[in-house]
Design a protein that fits this description.
By secondary structure, the chain is α/β, with parallel strands linked by helices. It has 2 domains: 199 residues, Rossmann fold (3-Layer(aba) Sandwich), CATH 3.40.50; 50 residues. The chain contains 9 helices and 7 strands. A 7-stranded mixed beta sheet has the order 3-2-1-4-5-7-6, sandwiched between helices. The mean pLDDT is 88.
């Protein structure tokens, strides 16, 4: 049964945006027959916890987190309830100390930048490989009531994480606060960001060849338009290549080349501006 059907049939009141159910089905389907630990932040009236209990394997561990102490009444066999503030780092430390690693966390909590960022930072390292962190209602990053738009919105935080994931390519960069030892990929939907966790696949990338090079290989034109490549083919440069062995001329060549590259990329950037409007 699809999540939408379970939602409609639930006897407890709850509310969801129409497009959300396709996202749930798409991301959660592969976990249905597995005994997993599923955590949802934001219980409200308890209806969604009932849905997840029916959706996942009968022996899955279903956990709800909410700030409202009254939500403790929804705890019953097969459903655990924790009361706490998701923007409090100490709460998460204590939570994972008690619960251990989990497989899925769905954040449908308070939606502030701080709540979503802290939940992500503290949860990503505590999700099992092949697990997922799904943050919903990320449209809050564009709404005034949540202090946005802001340079430090949750969505802008996820854009930083795109860089973080790409920094697994050698020597590109490094963040002091990094999650790229855990996050293998990031998936975006309207109002959702999904972080797919797999520490076994987040190793530093390296180039490999399937066989030795041979004389029949054709020229590699992938970087043919790069300034440095063109300079090496320039007739004038070729004529004075013998001077490259002298340190001063080598310095001059690299200085001029770097300036040409700099101004070329400024020109390209100006041409690209229209695509960012």
């Amino acid at each position: 049964m699809k999540t939408y059907d379970l939602f409609i049939q639930s006897e407890k009141y709850s509310t969801k945006w129409e497009k959300y159910f396709d996202v749930y089905d798409s991301i959660f389907e592969k976990y249905r027959d597995k005994k997993i630990t599923f955590v949802e932040v934001g219980i409200f009236n308890g209806g969604s916890l009932e849905i997840w209990k029916k959706f996942f394997h009968p022996e899955s561990r279903i956990i709800g987190i909410d700030l409202n102490p009254e939500c403790k009444k929804f705890e019953k066999k097969g459903i655990e309830i924790f009361i706490g503030d998701q923007s409090n780092e100490n709460f998460w430390d204590d939570f994972y100390k008690k619960v251990g690693k989990i497989d899925i966390l769905l954040d449908d909590g308070g939606h502030t930048n701080m709540q979503q960022i802290i939940t992500s930072i503290k949860s990503v390292p505590n999700i099992n490989d092949d697990g997922v962190l799904l943050i919903e209602d990320t449209h809050a990053s564009y709404k005034n009531e949540f202090g946005n738009p802001s340079k430090y919105s949750f969505i802008n935080f996820t854009k930083k994480l795109i860089d973080d994931v790409n920094f697994k390519y050698p020597n590109l960069g490094r963040f002091r606060k990094s999650l790229n030892n855990y996050i293998y990929s990031i998936q975006y939907y309207e109002s959702f960001v999904a972080f797919h966790i797999n520490s076994k696949k987040t190793f530093t990338n390296k180039s490999i060849n399937n066989r030795s090079a041979n004389k029949e290989m054709i020229d590699d034109f992938r970087h043919e338009n790069l300034i440095k490549k063109k300079m090496l083919k320039n007739k004038l440069v070729k004529n004075f290549k013998f001077l490259y062995k002298y340190r001063f001329f080598k310095w001059c060549y690299n200085f001029i080349l770097n300036k040409i590259i700099y101004f070329k990329y400024i020109s390209d950037t100006i041409k690209c501006l229209k695509f960012f409007k």
